[in-house]
What we know:
The complex is a heterodimer.
Chain A: E1 2-11, E2 15-23, E3 26-34, H1 40-44, H2 52-55, H3 64-78, H4 87-113, H5 120-127, H6 131-144, H7 150-170, E4 179-180, E5 183-184, H8 190-212, H9 216-223, H10 228-240, H11 255-262, H12 265-271, E6 292-296, E7 321-324, E8 329-330, E9 337-340, E10 382-385, E11 389-391, H13 394-400, H14 404-415, H15 423-448, E12 468-475, E13 478-486, E14 492-498, H16 500-504, H17 516-521, H18 541-546, H19 549-557, E15 564-570, E16 575-581
Parallel strand pairs in A: 6-11
Antiparallel strand pairs in A: 1-2, 1-15, 2-3, 4-5, 6-7, 7-8, 9-10, 12-13, 13-14, 15-16
Chain B: E1 5-6, E2 9-10, H1 36-47, H2 72-75, H3 79-83, H4 111-114, H5 153-156, H6 163-189
Antiparallel strand pairs in B: 1-2
Amino acid sequence: xxxxxxxxxxxxxxHLRITTEVENGVIRDAYCSGTMYRGFEQILKxxxxxxxxxxxxxxxGVCPHAHALASANALDDAFGIAQAIPKGALVTRNIIDxxxxxxxxxxxxxxxxxxxxxxxxxxxILHTLGDAGDALWRELASRFTPFSGTSWVAAVxxxxxxxxxxxxxxxxxxxxxxxxxxxxxxxxxLGDIGKIASYCLKTADFVKDYVLGMxxxxxxxxxxxxxxxxxxxxxxxYLSSLPTDDFSRGAGWSDAAILAGFGSELVxxxxxxLPASLKLDKIGGYSDPSRIGFLSYGExxxxxxxxxxxxxxxxxxxxxxxxxxNLNYENFDHTQVTEAVSRSFxxxxxxxHPWSGETxxxxxxxxxTYENLPGKYSWVKAPRYRGIASEVGPLAKLINAKxxxxxxxxxxFLKNGYSPANVYTRMLARAQDTLIIARWTEKWLLEDLDPNxxxxxxxxxxxxxxxxxxxxxxxxxGALGHWIVTDGQSKIANYQLVVPxxxxxxxxxxxxxxxxxxxxxxxxxxxxxxxxxSSNGVISLDKENENPTAIFxxxxxxxxxxxxxxxxxxxxxxxxxxxxxx
Amino acid sequence: xxAQFLQTTKGGILGADYTSRAGLPVINIPGCPVxxxxxxxTLAAIILGKGGxxxxxxxxxxxxxxxxxxxxxxxxxxRGFYDIGQLDTEFGEGHCLWKLGCKGPIVHADxxxxxxxxxxxxxxxxxxxxxxxxxxxxxxxxxxxxxxxEKIPTLVGVDVGTAAKVAVGAxxxxxxxxxxxxxxxKEEKK
Lengths: 582, 190
């Protein structure tokens, strides 16, 4: 057994360390450790509750808008005015969230996840296939290599441009200022609408030129506005119309086509008959459906005055919901969310609901060690829904929303003995989510936003004496909940944030059940690249431990935050290997 | 603790007297987030060999971006409303945000001239009070964010503790007096 440690895998609300036990190239055990203490719960205590929308954004500059919205929702609830928030304010919040989420997904797909497709291991592997393999590798390397890849460069431009579009409403990005309890501070003008629309047009061009090779509407017409089985049939039929000796954009192989075709063994090799695939559908799945679920809190308000803070099923554009590992949907109930701390560096009560949640760190530095794996090993708590470890993110959101393409693919994977959740469906779900949000954002902007509407409902501190509130939203990387309790002086008595990364990267709970990423790693090969061809042995096991492509793909498919240098340590030889993963 | 300051007191990890090989102290670029221009133009000055020309204020902020002698308020797009005493008491009315808690009158930065995200906007123009994210005491010295400066005892009251807060308080009193006068003038006109 070899221990392979990746630290940091990424930087998401603190560093992430992944420790795996590897035997014959297969990950037998995995532990996720958050190596940084957040402490925002303590920072917020005793403050004016209205400040929470500004302060919680500052947890992280990647999706601050989502914290501002979850916080505003918690405050709207605590102040008792959620049902009175005007339509104009809710539509404006939707547009801010839509634009920022598109920017965030573009950055994740291309800048934070995509470069792993240009991992040199794939060049080695694909070369053994001859001309077709070399041709595919040329596309992967020329599109997804950091700083030089054509798609990478274009996506960075999109991220910047869409941040500018958010700033038109929010004042600035990161940390937009507009979303507050009661609504929004801005009053969008006709000029603002025109300016944002021009940004949307440029994004549509980027999607057409790089992502899809067709317009967003044409893609959604064949993959989203149809039944699940038809959506899969349409994608397979579209991909099979593309040439198999020329994988260039000009030949129709857009980035989405490359990922959809060559990303999956089942779709690429079995259904399309392609010579090879990256087999992303064989990694990052769950071996035991009874230990996993898919959780979403609901995102995007209905276009009307007022909303329900508990996000009842069907109210929001993306519904809330919990779907179990066997894909049975049930209605969401926020009181079923608890956090376990038995394996985390806290002394707080175990399995508490966030309204009574505690964040008390361990007393001494000696207790903070990542080597003592039977004991506490992470600063991340272990959120559970009805006691079940739950994946959150675009895949969970689209499963709960019964999105046709993702449900169709999940069904095909299940029937063929694959986990319906895997790196492939997780990444396609993020892309599909981006496109659906782009369609909706255009509608909110051009059809629903009325510059003469109302954008704010009065809120003052007299309304928040001894109150509590729940704020439910979806950050780009998944279900995000803020829970607030105020005291008799209208100050914050308790504020608990359960963030998506906490759900996905959680350690084991009091029952010993691993968190979602831990489960997704266990049982996977460590060298996804070595697995890409059926013929093994092209890359030696030692090399795979040094360049554990599956850990990169799987961990990052849950959406890491920051590019960084990755250090991997092969404990067998005790050598440290450093890779530039930008 | 910062590299060369402990909050507003010189010291920090590197000590009060630290200078780099180029003879420069730690240059503090505040802001949450930092404006890319503030960071990149400071680096550009150093790369161009003009580091010695960077003038710093008492918190080692480059004065070119964080001018000690004027505030966000002076160039705020909504300044005209302040001058005629149009001070909003609810969000979204489109005028001066003083009464809604704007800290612009006591915050030293060029946001209102430079604007954010490639010149698109800034906080006050989007209807949000400035929360003073470039000031040394942020966020504690600037909160509550949505309460008028005069009503925050730690800013202008008797328990003002630090030098920063004294300066902040003095500016606030001046501004408040000005605001009252302007409002009174408006009342008279009516």
